[in-house]
Fold:
Amino acid sequence: MLDRIKRHDMAGLATRAAPSADVGYLLDAALFTTTGFIVDDELEDPDTPPRLIDAYLAVADESDTAVDSDDLRLWADSLAQTRSHLTPGQKTRHCRGLSEWVKCHAGREGQLEHTRDLASYLDFRRADSGFSFLTVGVERSAGVDLEQMMHSSDLETLHAACLAHGTLVNDLFSYRKERDAPVPMNAVPVLQRAEGLTLQAAVDKVCGLIRRAELDVDRLVRKWKETDRAQALYAYAHAWWELLGGHLRWTMESERYHGRGHVWDGTFPTAMVLYPDRTVLVSA
Structure:
């Protein structure tokens, strides 16, 4: 387990994704995301027994807090710590989103229909990536509560852009790791299959969509920053801006995606060279 914790480097992801958050939040986020990645690996293992999947689901929605394994106990403790700082409404949304996430990851082999085109894929990834409970985490890091805000088309645009950016950045840099899975949950092969694109054309399209999402988030951050009565929205959008940038950096640094011993040189890559056991990022 310690090897997996080091490889995931969730403490690094938390500090990069929420540099303005308080230390307590960063510690909670690092523990919760570390245990979440370990659970993710367990749920996607075809040999994981249904009984254990049911146990993870019971912990996620707090329908049964009795646990009988060290991994489950660690995950339950991290959830209890994370949720102790949430409002009742936030906790309800966190439980619901995490339950959806467990169900998605436990049944990926039957989800080919969700990869028929990019739109259906991104819609599925909203649940599969844990976007609902991630949103609650962003609220906490920014010190706001979405239930106290006026919902608008701009807020929907922000969420759509953040989902697209987070998903597609992950897919771009994790392509080598995921390409040989029975059902690769990755936008690159989805575009190749659905639109008949070559690998290079699919990667180019993913890069373009990432840039479009980044521009949408930037526009809304600037708009709400200059609006006196939208400071809560600005704080929330700025927290997302920090998260997306931190996530991008982490994906370029991560051994999880690029193989053991990978060290990012700090430059933005213009190409990736794929090997069976590693990815090499190349800068012009």
